């Protein structure tokens, strides 16, 4: 609700970026990608997440800044991956699946059509990065 209110209060000529599940080097230790990477996760979920690498986020900002786009813009890969599938690829497939997670969306895939109209495309796929990190 706070994010929506901020969008309503923003100047009409501004752009607000809605990031999906950002990951990358030196991620916060309480974020799922990092917990899987560090082998500290204790469970996974049946959720799908639109994982977006921080480098692609930075590129999205560079594409949006000079554009004429105003208002909220979703920044994600446009594809969703099950958390449990990412865990399996990272060697953590043995973790129990937590079924009840109130308040969590089942799938947070972003509609990146507005962002893509700038010529931007995601370049890093989360499942491809795992090969480099395991």
Describe, in plain words, how this protein is organized in 3D.
The longest helix has 11 residues, at 54-64. By secondary structure, this protein is of the alpha/beta class. The model has no long low-confidence stretch (mean pLDDT 91). The protein has one domain (22-128): UDP-galactose 4-epimerase, domain 1 (Alpha-Beta Complex). The radius of gyration is 16 Å and the shape is globular. The protein has six helices and eight strands. It has a two-stranded parallel sheet. A two-stranded parallel sheet has the order 2-5. The termini are far apart. Helix content is 33%, strand content 18%. The chain has helices at residues 2-9, 32-37, 54-64, 83-89, 113-116, 126-133; strands at 15-19, 21-23, 44-45, 48-49, 51-53, 71-75, 81-82, 97-98.
Task: Jot down its keywords.
two-stranded parallel ribbon; alpha/beta; UDP-galactose 4-epimerase, domain 1; 134 residues; two-stranded parallel sheet; 18% strand; 6 helices
Summary, kept brief:
This protein has helices at residues 2-9, 32-37, 54-64, 83-89, 113-116, 126-133; strands at 15-19, 21-23, 44-45, 48-49, 51-53, 71-75, 81-82, 97-98. It is an alpha/beta fold.
């Amino acid at each position: 609700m706070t994010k929506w209110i901020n969008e309503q209060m923003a100047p009409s000529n501004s752009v607000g970026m809605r990031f999906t599940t950002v990951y990358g080097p030196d991620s916060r230790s309480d974020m799922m990608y990092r917990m899987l990477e560090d082998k500290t996760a204790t469970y996974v979920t049946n959720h799908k997440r639109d994982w977006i690498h921080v480098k692609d986020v930075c590129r999205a900002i560079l594409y949006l800044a000079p554009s004429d786009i105003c208002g909220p813009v979703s920044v994600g890969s446009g594809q969703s991956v099950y958390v449990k599938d990412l865990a399996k690829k990272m060697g953590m497939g043995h973790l129990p699946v937590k079924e009840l997670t109130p308040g969590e969306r089942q799938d947070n895939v972003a509609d990146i059509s507005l962002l893509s109209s700038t010529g931007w495309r995601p370049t890093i796929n989360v499942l491809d990065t795992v090969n480099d990190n395991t």
